[in-house]
Design a protein that fits this description.
10% of the residues lie in helices and 45% in strands. The chain is mainly beta. The protein folds into two domains: 125 residues, Immunoglobulin-like (Sandwich), CATH 2.60.40; 126 residues, no CATH class.
Length: 291
Amino acid sequence: MARRFPLLLLVSLFALLGVSHGQVSVNLELARRTYLNGEPIPVKVSITNLSGNELVFQGSKQNPWIDFIVKSSRGVPLNPVGAPAFGAVKIPAGKTFARTIDLTQIFGFSELGNFSIYSIVRLPNQRTGGFQSRRLLFNISTARPTWSQVVGVPGKPGVSHEFRLVRFSADRKDYLYAQIADPKTGRILRTHRLGEALSLRKPTVAVDSGLTMHVLYLSTPSFWGHAKISAEGKLLGVDLYRPGPGGAPRLARLQDGGVSAVGGLLYDPKKEAEAREKNRKASDRPGFIYE
């Protein structure tokens, strides 16, 4: 009789919750498995309600309804430095709730190496257990910069940041990254993945009078990328260029101290799509038109 008690207690608990084990599916997705130090690590969590009834997930700071557990390769759990602001979520029967969060906003990742992650979702009356996702593995690595420059931060006297340009290989491709580091400690403050970079042409870098970092790189055989990063570490945008009549684009320093990409043709995907649509409609017209 004593052996049956835990089973009866478990059955009673799930009857109280109104949902049985396996009727809530939790899934995690990572875009890739390898990340550079300081780069955002977006993970998508999907929760599917298979209970046949509407479910409401809600909790508190002390007892959140969703937890993300990250462990190092040694099996040591990482202490969270933040919490995902999901709030209360209502999922109708048969529907799926999905959201993407950045793991670097929840965990500090002060070390590099291999990590595992899984998630646990709990209903309001659940204090232990819950619905667990499968475990995913990922890696955080570092790479030596190919270019660096220390600059001051506008509006912050005495504060300086170090721009770094890094080429990093992942998924059998070479990618270009812009990093912002603390020059005193070497700590990476921000990492931006600029995109794939072909080795046919060496990237060029320049810092303008406003202390903005400009990077020009060959992203495909037909397109060049021009990225701009502020001294504070914000990615200001990436423009695409095609070779112009004078050849490939290049970075040029202007008389006012600014830096611009010259010699190429700025690519506007919206205008390109409009032009293709206009040409398509024109080609659809019959060869004889009576006005």
